[in-house]
Amino acid sequence: MSEKKLSGLNVVAFEARHAKTISDLISIQGGNPISAPSMKEVPLENNPQVFEFAEKWFAGKIDILVLLTGVGTRALAEILQTKFPREEIMSRFKKTILIPRGPKPIRVLKEWGVPYAVTVPEPNTWRELLKTVDENAVRLQNKTVAVQEYGVPNPELMDGLKQRGANVIQVPVYRWALPDDLGPLKAAIQKILKGEAQVAVFTTAVQIEHVLDVGARLIAPARIQEALNKMVVASVGPDCSEALRARGIQVDIEPESPKMGPLIVAVAEKSRRILDAKRNSGK
Questions:
Q1: Residue 238 confidence (pLDDT) above 50
Q2: Each residue of 260-276: pLDDT tens digit?
Q3: Spatial separation of the C-alpha atoms in residues 27 and 49, rounded to whole Å
Q4: What pLDDT is recorded for position 200?
Q5: 10-39+178-281 and 42-176 in the same fold
Q6: Mean pLDDT confidence for 52-63
Q7: Using CA atoms, how far apart are residues 91 and 198, in angstroms rounded to an integer?
Q8: Closest Cα partner for 214 from 238, 193, 196, 199?
Q9: Nearest Cα to 26, choosing from 199, 238, 188?
Q10: Is 270 helix (H, G, I), strand (E, B) or coil?
Q11: Which fold has domain 42-176?
Q12: Concatenated DSSP letters for 206-258?
Protein backbone atom coordinates (compact mmCIF):
# COMPACT_ATOMS: atom_id res chain seq x y z
CA MET A 1 0.00 0.00 0.00
CA SER A 2 1.34 3.48 -0.92
CA GLU A 3 2.31 5.88 1.83
CA LYS A 4 -0.44 8.26 2.97
CA LYS A 5 1.67 11.40 2.95
CA LEU A 6 -1.04 13.70 4.33
CA SER A 7 -1.97 11.36 7.17
CA GLY A 8 -2.89 13.34 10.29
CA LEU A 9 -3.05 16.70 8.48
CA ASN A 10 -6.19 18.84 8.25
CA VAL A 11 -6.43 20.31 4.76
CA VAL A 12 -8.86 23.17 4.09
CA ALA A 13 -10.17 23.42 0.52
CA PHE A 14 -12.27 26.40 -0.60
CA GLU A 15 -13.39 24.84 -3.91
CA ALA A 16 -17.15 24.94 -4.53
CA ARG A 17 -18.03 23.43 -7.92
CA HIS A 18 -15.63 20.50 -7.48
CA ALA A 19 -15.75 20.30 -3.68
CA LYS A 20 -16.27 16.53 -3.57
CA THR A 21 -13.52 15.86 -6.12
CA ILE A 22 -10.87 17.83 -4.24
CA SER A 23 -11.97 16.32 -0.91
CA ASP A 24 -11.62 12.84 -2.41
CA LEU A 25 -8.13 13.66 -3.72
CA ILE A 26 -7.08 14.85 -0.26
CA SER A 27 -8.52 11.72 1.35
CA ILE A 28 -6.66 9.45 -1.09
CA GLN A 29 -3.42 11.02 0.15
CA GLY A 30 -4.46 10.33 3.75
CA GLY A 31 -5.42 13.89 4.67
CA ASN A 32 -8.51 15.02 6.54
CA PRO A 33 -10.35 17.32 4.09
CA ILE A 34 -12.18 20.33 5.50
CA SER A 35 -14.52 21.43 2.72
CA ALA A 36 -15.34 25.13 2.96
CA PRO A 37 -17.00 26.28 -0.29
CA SER A 38 -16.29 29.98 -0.60
CA MET A 39 -18.36 30.97 -3.61
CA LYS A 40 -21.27 30.22 -5.88
CA GLU A 41 -21.69 30.95 -9.55
CA VAL A 42 -24.33 33.54 -10.46
CA PRO A 43 -25.18 33.79 -14.17
CA LEU A 44 -25.78 37.35 -15.41
CA GLU A 45 -28.79 36.42 -17.50
CA ASN A 46 -30.05 39.99 -17.64
CA ASN A 47 -26.61 41.33 -18.41
CA PRO A 48 -26.91 44.16 -20.95
CA GLN A 49 -23.20 43.91 -21.81
CA VAL A 50 -23.74 40.45 -23.31
CA PHE A 51 -26.47 41.70 -25.62
CA GLU A 52 -24.52 44.84 -26.52
CA PHE A 53 -21.71 42.46 -27.52
CA ALA A 54 -24.21 40.31 -29.46
CA GLU A 55 -25.47 43.29 -31.44
CA LYS A 56 -21.93 44.06 -32.62
CA TRP A 57 -21.06 40.37 -33.07
CA PHE A 58 -24.01 39.55 -35.32
CA ALA A 59 -23.35 42.72 -37.30
CA GLY A 60 -19.84 41.42 -38.03
CA LYS A 61 -18.15 44.12 -35.93
CA ILE A 62 -16.23 41.71 -33.64
CA ASP A 63 -13.00 40.45 -35.22
CA ILE A 64 -11.67 38.21 -32.44
CA LEU A 65 -13.32 36.54 -29.44
CA VAL A 66 -11.14 35.44 -26.50
CA LEU A 67 -12.73 32.63 -24.48
CA LEU A 68 -11.28 32.40 -20.97
CA THR A 69 -13.25 29.49 -19.49
CA GLY A 70 -15.31 26.52 -20.57
CA VAL A 71 -18.15 27.35 -18.21
CA GLY A 72 -18.16 30.93 -19.46
CA THR A 73 -18.20 29.82 -23.10
CA ARG A 74 -21.27 27.66 -22.46
CA ALA A 75 -22.91 30.40 -20.42
CA LEU A 76 -22.38 32.93 -23.21
CA ALA A 77 -24.16 30.65 -25.71
CA GLU A 78 -26.97 29.87 -23.25
CA ILE A 79 -27.62 33.54 -22.51
CA LEU A 80 -27.64 34.41 -26.19
CA GLN A 81 -30.09 31.57 -26.87
CA THR A 82 -32.71 33.45 -24.85
CA LYS A 83 -32.92 35.89 -27.79
CA PHE A 84 -31.26 34.24 -30.80
CA PRO A 85 -31.56 30.83 -32.54
CA ARG A 86 -28.78 28.39 -31.62
CA GLU A 87 -27.94 27.80 -35.30
CA GLU A 88 -27.32 31.52 -35.78
CA ILE A 89 -25.08 31.62 -32.69
CA MET A 90 -23.01 28.63 -33.82
CA SER A 91 -22.68 30.10 -37.30
CA ARG A 92 -21.33 33.32 -35.84
CA PHE A 93 -18.82 31.41 -33.68
CA LYS A 94 -17.53 29.70 -36.84
CA LYS A 95 -17.11 33.04 -38.62
CA THR A 96 -15.09 34.60 -35.79
CA ILE A 97 -11.40 34.21 -34.97
CA LEU A 98 -11.54 32.40 -31.60
CA ILE A 99 -8.74 32.32 -29.03
CA PRO A 100 -9.51 29.85 -26.22
CA ARG A 101 -7.29 30.34 -23.17
CA GLY A 102 -7.00 26.66 -22.21
CA PRO A 103 -8.31 23.11 -22.54
CA LYS A 104 -11.77 23.74 -21.05
CA PRO A 105 -13.05 26.22 -23.66
CA ILE A 106 -11.33 24.11 -26.33
CA ARG A 107 -13.32 21.10 -25.14
CA VAL A 108 -16.57 23.07 -25.54
CA LEU A 109 -15.63 24.28 -29.03
CA LYS A 110 -14.74 20.76 -30.15
CA GLU A 111 -18.08 19.52 -28.82
CA TRP A 112 -19.80 22.17 -30.94
CA GLY A 113 -17.63 21.46 -33.99
CA VAL A 114 -16.30 25.03 -33.95
CA PRO A 115 -12.69 25.72 -35.08
CA TYR A 116 -10.30 27.95 -33.15
CA ALA A 117 -7.22 29.91 -34.17
CA VAL A 118 -4.49 29.00 -31.67
CA THR A 119 -3.74 26.80 -28.65
CA VAL A 120 -2.40 28.49 -25.51
CA PRO A 121 0.13 26.36 -23.57
CA GLU A 122 0.06 25.71 -19.84
CA PRO A 123 -0.24 27.26 -17.36
CA ASN A 124 -2.80 29.07 -19.56
CA THR A 125 -2.46 32.51 -17.96
CA TRP A 126 -2.84 35.88 -19.66
CA ARG A 127 0.93 35.88 -20.21
CA GLU A 128 0.85 32.66 -22.28
CA LEU A 129 -2.20 33.94 -24.15
CA LEU A 130 -0.48 37.17 -25.21
CA LYS A 131 2.75 35.33 -26.04
CA THR A 132 0.78 32.88 -28.23
CA VAL A 133 -0.90 35.77 -30.03
CA ASP A 134 2.51 37.30 -30.73
CA GLU A 135 4.17 34.05 -31.81
CA ASN A 136 1.31 33.20 -34.18
CA ALA A 137 1.23 36.70 -35.66
CA VAL A 138 -2.42 37.19 -34.78
CA ARG A 139 -3.02 40.74 -35.94
CA LEU A 140 -4.65 42.89 -33.26
CA GLN A 141 -3.89 46.37 -34.59
CA ASN A 142 -7.21 48.20 -35.21
CA LYS A 143 -9.14 44.97 -34.52
CA THR A 144 -12.12 44.72 -32.18
CA VAL A 145 -11.44 42.01 -29.60
CA ALA A 146 -14.15 40.76 -27.25
CA VAL A 147 -13.05 38.99 -24.06
CA GLN A 148 -15.39 36.56 -22.28
CA GLU A 149 -14.63 37.21 -18.63
CA TYR A 150 -14.87 34.66 -15.84
CA GLY A 151 -15.99 36.30 -12.64
CA VAL A 152 -13.33 38.96 -12.09
CA PRO A 153 -11.79 41.26 -14.73
CA ASN A 154 -8.20 40.68 -15.84
CA PRO A 155 -6.66 44.15 -16.25
CA GLU A 156 -3.26 42.77 -17.33
CA LEU A 157 -4.83 40.92 -20.25
CA MET A 158 -6.93 43.95 -21.23
CA ASP A 159 -3.87 46.22 -21.13
CA GLY A 160 -1.81 43.72 -23.13
CA LEU A 161 -4.43 43.56 -25.89
CA LYS A 162 -4.77 47.34 -25.99
CA GLN A 163 -0.99 47.77 -26.18
CA ARG A 164 -1.10 45.63 -29.32
CA GLY A 165 -3.58 48.05 -30.88
CA ALA A 166 -6.85 46.24 -30.16
CA ASN A 167 -10.16 47.85 -29.34
CA VAL A 168 -11.22 45.68 -26.39
CA ILE A 169 -14.77 44.86 -25.34
CA GLN A 170 -15.30 43.08 -22.00
CA VAL A 171 -18.09 40.48 -21.94
CA PRO A 172 -18.81 39.28 -18.36
CA VAL A 173 -21.11 36.26 -18.52
CA TYR A 174 -21.15 35.23 -14.89
CA ARG A 175 -19.86 36.42 -11.56
CA TRP A 176 -19.09 34.85 -8.22
CA ALA A 177 -21.10 35.47 -5.07
CA LEU A 178 -20.69 34.19 -1.53
CA PRO A 179 -22.38 30.83 -0.88
CA ASP A 180 -25.86 30.87 0.62
CA ASP A 181 -24.62 28.93 3.64
CA LEU A 182 -21.55 30.60 5.16
CA GLY A 183 -21.41 28.11 8.05
CA PRO A 184 -18.72 25.77 6.64
CA LEU A 185 -16.55 28.70 5.51
CA LYS A 186 -16.76 30.46 8.87
CA ALA A 187 -16.00 27.19 10.69
CA ALA A 188 -12.94 26.60 8.49
CA ILE A 189 -11.67 30.13 9.12
CA GLN A 190 -12.05 29.56 12.86
CA LYS A 191 -9.98 26.37 12.57
CA ILE A 192 -7.30 28.30 10.70
CA LEU A 193 -7.23 31.01 13.37
CA LYS A 194 -6.98 28.42 16.15
CA GLY A 195 -4.13 26.59 14.43
CA GLU A 196 -6.28 23.48 13.94
CA ALA A 197 -5.61 23.24 10.17
CA GLN A 198 -2.20 22.69 8.63
CA VAL A 199 -2.79 23.20 4.90
CA ALA A 200 -4.96 25.65 2.90
CA VAL A 201 -5.67 24.94 -0.77
CA PHE A 202 -6.81 27.70 -3.15
CA THR A 203 -7.99 27.01 -6.72
CA THR A 204 -9.07 30.51 -7.84
CA ALA A 205 -8.36 34.13 -6.97
CA VAL A 206 -11.99 34.77 -6.04
CA GLN A 207 -11.69 32.28 -3.17
CA ILE A 208 -8.99 34.41 -1.57
CA GLU A 209 -11.11 37.55 -1.68
CA HIS A 210 -14.10 35.74 -0.19
CA VAL A 211 -12.10 34.04 2.56
CA LEU A 212 -10.65 37.37 3.65
CA ASP A 213 -13.98 39.19 3.30
CA VAL A 214 -15.85 36.64 5.41
CA GLY A 215 -12.94 36.39 7.81
CA ALA A 216 -13.06 40.16 8.33
CA ARG A 217 -16.52 39.68 9.85
CA LEU A 218 -14.92 37.53 12.54
CA ILE A 219 -11.55 39.16 13.16
CA ALA A 220 -9.04 41.68 11.77
CA PRO A 221 -7.83 40.65 8.27
CA ALA A 222 -4.20 40.84 9.42
CA ARG A 223 -4.87 38.02 11.88
CA ILE A 224 -6.17 35.80 9.07
CA GLN A 225 -3.15 36.53 6.90
CA GLU A 226 -0.85 35.82 9.85
CA ALA A 227 -2.60 32.49 10.54
CA LEU A 228 -2.44 31.43 6.88
CA ASN A 229 1.27 32.25 6.72
CA LYS A 230 1.90 29.79 9.56
CA MET A 231 0.26 27.04 7.47
CA VAL A 232 1.16 25.48 4.15
CA VAL A 233 -0.59 27.56 1.48
CA ALA A 234 -1.08 25.82 -1.86
CA SER A 235 -2.17 27.58 -5.06
CA VAL A 236 -3.36 25.90 -8.24
CA GLY A 237 -1.50 28.23 -10.59
CA PRO A 238 0.15 31.60 -11.33
CA ASP A 239 -2.98 33.78 -11.39
CA CYS A 240 -4.12 32.41 -8.04
CA SER A 241 -0.61 32.80 -6.62
CA GLU A 242 -0.42 36.43 -7.70
CA ALA A 243 -3.71 37.16 -5.93
CA LEU A 244 -2.49 35.50 -2.73
CA ARG A 245 0.78 37.42 -2.68
CA ALA A 246 -1.07 40.67 -3.37
CA ARG A 247 -2.98 40.08 -0.14
CA GLY A 248 0.16 39.42 1.88
CA ILE A 249 -0.09 35.63 1.86
CA GLN A 250 2.98 33.52 1.08
CA VAL A 251 2.54 30.78 -1.53
CA ASP A 252 4.37 27.61 -0.50
CA ILE A 253 3.23 25.19 -3.20
CA GLU A 254 2.26 25.67 -6.85
CA PRO A 255 2.17 22.63 -9.17
CA GLU A 256 3.78 22.65 -12.61
CA SER A 257 0.39 21.85 -14.15
CA PRO A 258 -2.46 24.12 -12.96
CA LYS A 259 -4.97 21.36 -12.19
CA MET A 260 -6.47 19.96 -9.00
CA GLY A 261 -4.88 16.52 -9.34
CA PRO A 262 -1.27 17.75 -9.64
CA LEU A 263 -2.01 20.35 -6.97
CA ILE A 264 -2.96 17.76 -4.34
CA VAL A 265 -0.06 15.48 -5.34
CA ALA A 266 2.31 18.42 -4.79
CA VAL A 267 0.62 19.17 -1.46
CA ALA A 268 1.15 15.55 -0.40
CA GLU A 269 4.81 15.55 -1.49
CA LYS A 270 5.85 18.84 0.09
CA SER A 271 3.57 19.79 3.00
CA ARG A 272 5.34 18.02 5.87
CA ARG A 273 8.76 19.42 4.96
CA ILE A 274 7.36 22.94 4.66
CA LEU A 275 5.46 22.63 7.95
CA ASP A 276 8.58 21.45 9.74
CA ALA A 277 10.58 24.37 8.35
CA LYS A 278 7.96 26.89 9.41
CA ARG A 279 7.69 25.43 12.89
CA ASN A 280 11.46 25.38 13.36
CA SER A 281 11.82 28.97 12.14
CA GLY A 282 9.20 30.02 14.67
CA LYS A 283 11.18 28.67 17.64
A1: yes
A2: 999 999 999 999 999 99
A3: 42
A4: 98
A5: yes
A6: 96
A7: 51
A8: 193
A9: 199
A10: helix
A11: Rossmann fold (3.40.50)
A12: HHHHHHHHHHTTTS-HHHHHHHHHTSEEEESSHHHHHHHHHTT----B--SS-
Residue type for 265, please? V
The amino acid at 17: R
Report the amino acid identity of residue 42: V
What pLDDT does residue 211 have?
96
CATH class of the domain comprising 10-39+178-281 = alpha beta
Average pLDDT over residues 232-246: 93
Question: How many separate helices (H) and strands (E) can be counted in the chain?
Answer: 12, 10
Could you give the count of Cα atoms lying within 13 Å of 138 in the half-sphere of its Cβ? Answer: 27
Residue type, 258: P
Query: Domain map of the chain by residue range?
Result: 10-39+178-281, 42-176
Element (H, E) at 10: strand 10-13
Averaged pLDDT score across all residues of the chain = 93
Half-sphere CA count of 241, side-chain side, radius 13 A:
15
Residue 123's pLDDT is what?
86
The pLDDT confidence band at residue 166, using thresholds 50, 70 and 90, is very high
Q: Is the pTM of this model over 0.90?
A: no
Of 42, 32, 41, 102, residue with least CA distance to 68 = 102
**Strand 32-35 to strand 10-13: parallel, antiparallel, or no bridges (unpaired)?**
parallel
Instruction: Tell me the pairing of strands 167-172 and 144-149.
Output: parallel
| Integer Cα distance of 186 and 66 in angstroms | 36
What local confidence, expressed as pLDDT, does residue 1 receive? 42
The bridge status of strand 40-43 relative to strand 32-35 is unpaired
